[in-house]
Design goal:
Length: 480
């Protein structure tokens, strides 16, 4: 009885939206057609340029194009990791501790990539999302606990990211009201997720990942001390105090995040459905070619994500920390503080990055919660479905977005919201990591694609590290 009541409450927003679908589709068609029309125009112009290239240039272009087409869920997942929450955390790291923690960008890269590869493998081999596999192989109490913790952390993160995006827009357009921006972004993201077919939506997210290069460029413009950057990249520095422990846990929590686990697994399944493998039987199993493609995709996304972390820390360390500006309260404040020190170009690139990465990350946050909850309840899930076919799936997305929006009207402190949401992920992650390790190492589930020894070592090491980080966060947050 209670389960039916909960399901009805979740379905209600999607059903209410469907009642006004005719009017909503008119708006949504305009939203989704504009990028497609612009893309087609640029594609036609780009082909003319390619036709006039020398043969060597054409070969290089073809290699780059083939590599780009190979990328998919891994790139999107890695890029979404650098959401406004991550940007704020990395900015705070550089401003407060200079270059001393920049080594974490290289340290977390293989940990993150190995875990995400496991998640992708689970999706490819089983044909199910992560929640579906937890439901099949673990007690319901574990499933519901993980799902509720994920939903809470993600919704909190969504609220913080929407607010950070609004502040980013105000850096570029100061006269636009905060309320109009957060409401506008919420409506836009919800409509895009509901009314855009998965194949097109995946392409939009993929192109948004290129926004990350704004931070790489801004770092070079800020002119950090590259000698110090290099030295601190290879020599770890840790001060065993509460503030730094909290920040290290926040970095681990924002790079090895539970929402990325669920999203990665489900997107591999979505891709197979988009290719015509609509039944579980068709999706089960994989081959060497598919695994190779997945690995290139996943490692490319994770490397890009950590490179961006590296450059954000470098930019803030070389400017803010060097000039005694150590207390950053938001990603937008980091941009403002950089402006007089690194110039207008860095300021605008930083602000543009906040908005662009919010547009990429928020749908991933809302989507991962929705995949987890709908699989837990045994309901239809996936962006491949229309609104009328998946009320629960889209209902969770709408609820997540509305609750996140509401958080911006109750005095949410941006830096506390962003840092503590990352810490919350760091606390939740060990539980889900243990489950991922057990699933990915089980020969009955994974067959020949179960974890090999290197993945076992790195995976369990990462799990242990996240446990330590979780306890450290609790120690740092609560007074002794």
């Amino acid at each position: 009885m209670a389960k039916k009541i909960v399901e009805k409450m979740i379905d209600a927003p999607a059903q209410a939206l469907e009642m006004g679908i005719n009017q909503g589709q008119k708006v949504a068609i305009g939203v989704k057609n504009a990028p497609a029309q612009a893309y087609e125009m640029s594609k036609a112009g780009g082909q003319k340029i390619v036709d006039n290239m020398p043969d060597n240039a054409k070969k290089s272009y073809k290699k780059a194009r083939d590599y780009w087409y190979l990328l998919g869920p891994g790139l999107t997942t890695g890029a979404s990791d650098d959401d406004p929450s991550g940007i704020a955390t990395y900015s705070q790291t550089g401003a407060q501790y200079g270059y001393s923690l920049i080594w974490l960008a290289f340290f977390t890269m293989p940990l993150m990539a190995v875990v995400q590869e496991m998640c992708a493998r689970i999706g490819l081999v089983t044909g199910r999302g992560l929640a579906g596999n937890i439901k099949r192989h673990f007690p319901k109490s574990i499933l519901y606990t993980c799902t509720l913790l994920l939903f809470a952390a993600n919704t909190f993160n969504i609220g913080a990211d929407i607010g950070a995006m609004a502040q980013g827009v105000q850096l570029l357009l100061p006269k636009v009201g905060f309320t109009y921006i957060v409401v506008g972004f919420t409506i836009f993201i919800v409509l895009l997720q509901i009314f855009t077919p998965y194949v097109k939506y995946a392409k939009y997210l993929k192109w948004l990942a290129l926004v990350l290069f704004a931070y790489i460029i801004s770092a070079f413009l800020s002119k950090p001390d590259w000698g110090e950057v290099l030295r601190n990249s290879v020599v770890p520095h840790i001060q065993f105090n509460k503030n730094q422990l909290l920040l290290i846990c926040a970095i681990l929590g924002t790079t090895i995040s539970p929402y990325l686990f669920f999203w990665q697994t489900s997107q591999e399944v979505e891709n197979e459905v988009a290719e015509g493998q609509t039944t579980l039987k068709q999706r089960m199993g994989t081959d060497k070619k598919q695994i190779k493609r997945m690995r290139i995709d996943v490692w490319s996304g994770m490397i890009l994500s950590n490179i961006v972390m590296f450059f954000i820390i470098a930019a803030c360390a070389g400017t803010l920390f060097a000039h005694g500006i150590t207390n950053i309260t938001s990603a937008s404040q980091a941009a403002e503080a950089l402006r007089p020190l690194a110039g207008n170009a860095t300021y605008y690139l930083f602000a543009f990055g906040i908005v662009g990465m919010g547009l990429l990350a928020i749908p991933v946050l809302a989507g991962s919660s929705s995949y987890a909850i709908t699989e837990s309840l045994g309901k239809k899930q996936g962006l491949n479905h229309k609104l009328s076919q998946a009320h629960t799936f889209y209902g969770v997305i709408i609820i997540s977005m509305l609750v996140g929006l509401g958080m911006n009207f109750i005095g949410l402190n941006p830096i506390k919201a962003l840092i503590y949401s990352a810490v919350a992920n760091g606390i939740v992650a060990p539980v889900i990591l243990i489950i991922i390790m057990l699933l990915a190492s089980d020969k009955k589930i994974m067959g020949e694609w179960k974890n090999k020894k290197p993945a076992m070592i790195i995976g369990w090491g990462t799990t242990g590290l996240m446990m330590i980080a979780g306890f450290a966060a609790i120690y740092a947050i609560f007074p002794q």
